[in-house]
């Protein structure tokens, strides 16, 4: 079976390269990687940061380097199961604390970006929220490069990454998946605490 996504070895290489490159840059603007600036209360957000596969791979590597469980929610405003599940999933993941990074990537086209921003704002979920590049080649690269079962860009698709094991969960059904995802993440967090001295 072909393994998709980024391997632990690949994560290590990416993180090492990031550390090397960050030491060579201008000290007045350190490398922050791929991370949305957290909007302040009442602040208007006009655009989401556009990402493609390489950016998502960087997010995976960053979470692993920070020893955080990563949950990437690929969704769209036109997807009813996505918007029905989002509040429970987001609230549950945020409630698990800082050792979890919850990333939201909308596959909406640019004409729906304002609707995505409005929805994310209602859910208090603009931090770590992105829009995927609206380009068929980039979207095909995403389909080919993420997950083992998710290969057609159908949403919802929630991928769960353990910082040490890589991809450990793919949830492609939508409604009803939020409790299963939160349970898996809770289990990963508990096992990570047991591994610490």
What features would you describe in this structure?
This protein has helices at residues 8-22, 53-65, 80-94, 113-122, 136-145, 177-195; strands at residues 49-51, 69-75, 100-106, 129-132, 157-162, 166-171. The protein is α/β, with parallel strands linked by helices and 197 residues long. The chain has one domain: Glutaredoxin (3-Layer(aba) Sandwich), CATH 3.40.30. It has a 6-stranded mixed beta sheet, sandwiched between helices. The model is unreliable at 1-32 (pLDDT under 50).
**The CATH homologous superfamily:** Glutaredoxin
What share of residues are in beta strands? Answer: 15-25%
Helices and strands, in order, run as HEHEHEHEHEEH
Instruction: Assign the CATH topology.
Output: Glutaredoxin
CATH architecture: 3-Layer(aba) Sandwich
* Total number of helices: 6
Cα(first) to Cα(last) distance is 35 Å
Largest sheet properties: 6 strands, mixed
Task: Indicate the multimeric state.
Answer: single chain
The parts where pLDDT drops under 50 for at least 5 residues are 1-32
* Total E-strand runs: 6
The coarse overall form would be: globular
Strand order of the largest sheet: 1-4-3-2-5-6
The CATH class, by name, is Alpha Beta
Radius of gyration: 16 Å
| Average pLDDT score | 82
**Total domain units:** 1
Helical residue percent band:
40-55%
Structural class: alpha/beta
């Amino acid at each position: 079976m072909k393994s998709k996504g980024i391997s632990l070895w690949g994560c290590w290489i990416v993180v090492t390269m990031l550390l090397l490159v960050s030491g060579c840059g201008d000290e007045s603007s350190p490398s922050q990687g791929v991370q949305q600036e957290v909007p302040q209360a009442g602040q208007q957000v006009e655009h989401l940061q556009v990402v493609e596969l390489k950016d998502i791979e960087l997010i995976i590597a960053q979470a692993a380097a920070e020893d955080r469980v990563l949950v990437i929610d690929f969704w769209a405003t036109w997807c009813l199961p996505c918007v029905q599940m989002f509040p429970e999933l987001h609230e549950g993941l945020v409630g698990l604390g800082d050792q979890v990074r919850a990333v939201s990537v909308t596959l909406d086209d640019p004409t729906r970006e304002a609707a995505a921003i409005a929805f994310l704002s209602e859910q208090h979920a603009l931090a770590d929220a992105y829009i995927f590049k609206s380009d068929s080649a980039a979207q095909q690269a995403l389909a080919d490069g993420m997950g083992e079962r998710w290969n057609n860009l159908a949403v919802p698709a929630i991928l769960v990454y353990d910082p040490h094991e890589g991809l450990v969960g793919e949830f492609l059904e939508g409604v009803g998946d939020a409790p299963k995802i939160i349970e898996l993440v809770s289990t990963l967090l508990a096992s990570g605490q047991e591994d610490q001295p």
